[in-house]
Protein backbone atom coordinates (compact mmCIF):
# COMPACT_ATOMS: atom_id res chain seq x y z
CA UNK A 1 0.00 0.00 0.00
CA UNK A 2 2.84 2.37 0.87
CA UNK A 3 4.50 1.66 -2.49
CA UNK A 4 1.25 2.40 -4.32
CA UNK A 5 0.68 5.70 -2.52
CA UNK A 6 4.31 6.74 -3.11
CA UNK A 7 4.12 5.85 -6.81
CA UNK A 8 0.81 7.68 -7.17
CA UNK A 9 2.22 10.81 -5.51
CA UNK A 10 5.33 10.72 -7.70
CA UNK A 11 3.28 10.24 -10.87
CA UNK A 12 1.03 13.15 -9.93
CA UNK A 13 3.79 15.63 -10.72
CA UNK A 14 4.04 14.58 -14.38
CA UNK A 15 2.93 17.28 -16.80
CA UNK A 16 2.73 17.02 -20.54
CA UNK A 17 1.19 18.82 -23.48
CA UNK A 18 -0.21 17.15 -26.56
CA UNK A 19 -0.72 17.99 -30.21
CA UNK A 20 -3.29 15.45 -31.26
CA UNK A 21 -1.99 12.10 -30.00
CA UNK A 22 1.65 13.30 -29.86
CA UNK A 23 3.11 13.95 -26.41
CA UNK A 24 5.39 16.99 -26.75
CA UNK A 25 6.46 17.13 -23.09
CA UNK A 26 6.19 20.01 -20.66
CA UNK A 27 7.02 23.69 -21.06
CA UNK A 28 10.70 24.57 -21.42
CA UNK A 29 11.83 27.39 -19.11
CA UNK A 30 12.90 30.76 -20.49
CA UNK A 31 16.52 31.43 -19.52
CA UNK A 32 16.85 34.89 -21.04
CA UNK A 33 15.34 37.28 -23.57
CA UNK A 34 16.43 40.50 -25.25
CA UNK A 35 15.69 42.91 -28.05
CA UNK A 36 19.35 44.05 -28.07
CA UNK A 37 22.06 41.43 -28.59
CA UNK A 38 24.68 43.88 -27.27
CA UNK A 39 22.85 44.37 -23.97
CA UNK A 40 25.36 42.19 -22.06
CA UNK A 41 28.48 43.23 -23.97
CA UNK A 42 29.54 44.27 -27.45
CA UNK A 43 28.26 41.52 -29.75
CA UNK A 44 28.04 43.44 -32.97
CA UNK A 45 25.12 44.75 -34.97
CA UNK A 46 22.14 42.84 -36.26
CA UNK A 47 21.09 39.28 -35.73
CA UNK A 48 23.97 37.34 -37.24
CA UNK A 49 24.75 33.88 -35.82
CA UNK A 50 28.00 35.31 -34.39
CA UNK A 51 26.12 38.10 -32.57
CA UNK A 52 23.53 35.62 -31.30
CA UNK A 53 26.22 33.26 -30.00
CA UNK A 54 28.03 36.19 -28.35
CA UNK A 55 24.84 37.19 -26.47
CA UNK A 56 24.16 33.56 -25.49
CA UNK A 57 27.68 33.07 -24.13
CA UNK A 58 27.60 36.42 -22.28
CA UNK A 59 24.29 35.41 -20.72
CA UNK A 60 25.38 31.86 -19.84
CA UNK A 61 28.70 33.18 -18.51
CA UNK A 62 26.80 35.43 -16.09
CA UNK A 63 25.02 32.27 -14.86
CA UNK A 64 28.33 30.44 -14.40
CA UNK A 65 27.71 28.10 -17.33
CA UNK A 66 30.36 27.09 -19.84
CA UNK A 67 30.32 28.55 -23.37
CA UNK A 68 27.78 27.10 -25.79
CA UNK A 69 28.14 26.05 -29.40
CA UNK A 70 25.99 27.23 -32.30
CA UNK A 71 26.12 25.66 -35.75
CA UNK A 72 24.37 28.13 -38.06
CA UNK A 73 23.75 25.33 -40.59
CA UNK A 74 21.25 23.88 -38.09
CA UNK A 75 19.25 27.11 -37.93
CA UNK A 76 15.74 26.70 -39.33
CA UNK A 77 14.04 29.74 -40.81
CA UNK A 78 11.14 30.27 -40.88
CA UNK A 79 9.64 27.74 -38.51
CA UNK A 80 5.94 27.04 -38.14
CA UNK A 81 4.54 26.04 -34.76
CA UNK A 82 1.32 24.60 -33.36
CA UNK A 83 -0.76 25.50 -30.35
CA UNK A 84 -0.93 22.55 -27.97
CA UNK A 85 -4.32 20.99 -27.33
CA UNK A 86 -6.47 22.93 -24.87
CA UNK A 87 -4.29 26.05 -24.67
CA UNK A 88 -4.31 29.44 -26.35
CA UNK A 89 -0.83 30.43 -25.08
CA UNK A 90 1.36 27.29 -25.18
CA UNK A 91 3.06 26.58 -28.51
CA UNK A 92 5.20 23.63 -29.61
CA UNK A 93 7.43 22.65 -32.53
CA UNK A 94 9.89 19.90 -33.31
CA UNK A 95 13.62 20.60 -33.03
CA UNK A 96 16.23 19.79 -35.69
CA UNK A 97 18.21 17.93 -33.03
CA UNK A 98 17.99 17.48 -29.28
CA UNK A 99 20.13 20.12 -27.55
CA UNK A 100 20.72 21.71 -24.14
CA UNK A 101 19.16 25.01 -25.19
CA UNK A 102 17.34 26.50 -28.14
CA UNK A 103 17.16 30.08 -29.38
CA UNK A 104 14.14 31.64 -31.04
CA UNK A 105 13.90 34.95 -32.87
CA UNK A 106 10.62 36.67 -33.58
CA UNK A 107 9.77 40.32 -34.25
CA UNK A 108 13.19 41.69 -33.23
CA UNK A 109 13.31 39.71 -29.98
CA UNK A 110 15.52 36.75 -29.06
CA UNK A 111 14.71 34.16 -26.42
CA UNK A 112 16.98 31.47 -24.99
CA UNK A 113 15.22 28.43 -23.52
CA UNK A 114 16.60 25.48 -21.61
CA UNK A 115 15.47 22.27 -23.29
CA UNK A 116 14.49 20.15 -20.29
CA UNK A 117 11.10 18.53 -20.79
CA UNK A 118 11.42 16.61 -24.09
CA UNK A 119 14.65 16.99 -26.03
CA UNK A 120 12.95 16.53 -29.41
CA UNK A 121 10.36 19.25 -28.86
CA UNK A 122 10.37 22.92 -27.95
CA UNK A 123 7.37 23.89 -25.82
CA UNK A 124 6.92 27.56 -24.91
CA UNK A 125 4.32 29.16 -22.68
CA UNK A 126 3.98 32.51 -24.46
CA UNK A 127 2.23 34.03 -21.43
CA UNK A 128 5.64 34.00 -19.69
CA UNK A 129 7.65 35.81 -22.39
CA UNK A 130 7.82 39.45 -23.46
CA UNK A 131 4.89 40.78 -25.50
CA UNK A 132 7.54 41.98 -27.98
CA UNK A 133 7.75 38.42 -29.35
CA UNK A 134 4.18 38.78 -30.65
CA UNK A 135 3.44 35.12 -29.90
CA UNK A 136 1.20 33.39 -30.57
CA UNK A 137 0.40 35.16 -33.82
CA UNK A 138 -2.02 34.51 -36.65
CA UNK A 139 0.71 33.35 -39.05
CA UNK A 140 1.97 30.60 -36.66
CA UNK A 141 5.55 31.43 -37.66
CA UNK A 142 8.81 32.12 -35.84
CA UNK A 143 11.60 33.94 -37.72
CA UNK A 144 14.15 31.30 -36.81
CA UNK A 145 15.05 28.62 -34.33
CA UNK A 146 18.52 27.27 -33.57
CA UNK A 147 19.64 24.38 -31.36
CA UNK A 148 22.32 25.59 -28.93
CA UNK A 149 24.88 23.48 -27.08
CA UNK A 150 25.68 19.82 -27.11
CA UNK A 151 23.37 17.03 -28.23
CA UNK A 152 21.36 15.49 -25.46
CA UNK A 153 19.85 12.07 -25.65
CA UNK A 154 17.10 10.97 -23.36
CA UNK A 155 16.81 7.32 -22.43
CA UNK A 156 13.55 5.94 -21.13
CA UNK A 157 14.08 3.47 -18.29
CA UNK A 158 11.58 0.82 -19.40
CA UNK A 159 13.05 -1.88 -17.13
CA UNK A 160 12.20 0.35 -14.18
CA UNK A 161 8.56 0.28 -15.22
CA UNK A 162 8.60 -3.51 -15.34
CA UNK A 163 10.23 -3.67 -11.91
CA UNK A 164 7.52 -1.42 -10.46
CA UNK A 165 4.82 -3.61 -12.02
CA UNK A 166 6.53 -6.72 -10.62
CA UNK A 167 6.75 -5.16 -7.18
CA UNK A 168 3.03 -4.45 -7.31
CA UNK A 169 2.26 -8.04 -8.25
CA UNK A 170 4.47 -9.34 -5.43
CA UNK A 171 2.61 -7.06 -3.02
CA UNK A 172 -0.74 -8.39 -4.19
CA UNK A 173 0.51 -11.96 -3.84
CA UNK A 174 1.78 -11.36 -0.30
CA UNK A 175 -1.48 -9.73 0.66
CA UNK A 176 -3.43 -12.72 -0.60
CA UNK A 177 -1.09 -15.17 1.14
CA UNK A 178 -1.35 -13.46 4.52
CA UNK A 179 -5.10 -12.97 4.15
CA UNK A 180 -5.65 -16.76 3.96
CA UNK A 181 -3.60 -17.53 7.08
Description:
The protein has 181 residues and is an alpha+beta fold. It has one domain (15-154). Helix content is 26%, strand content 28%. The protein has 3 helices and 11 strands. It has helices at 2-11, 49-62, 158-180; strands at residues 17-19, 22-25, 30-34, 79-80, 82-83, 90-94, 99-106, 109-114, 121-125, 141-142, 144-151. The strands form 4 sheets. It has a 4-stranded antiparallel β-sheet, with helices on one face. Strand 5 (82-83) and strand 6 form a beta hairpin. The longest helix is centred in the C-terminal third of the chain and has 23 residues, at 158-180.
Portion of residues in helices?
A: 25-40%
**Alpha carbon gap, first and last residue:** 19 Å
Q: How many E strands?
A: 11
The averaged pLDDT comes out at: 81
C-alpha Rg, in Å?
Answer: 21 Å
Q: From the helix content, strand content and strand pairing, which structural class follows?
A: alpha+beta
| Biggest sheet features | 4 strands, antiparallel
For the largest sheet, list the strands in their spatial order.
3-8-7-11
- Compressed to H and E, one letter per element, the order equals HEEEHEEEEEEEEH
| Number of domain units | 1
Principal-axes geometry comes out as: elongated
Beta-strand percentage range: 25-35%
Instruction: Compute the number of helices.
Output: 3
The residue ranges in which pLDDT falls below 50 over 5 or more consecutive positions are 2-14
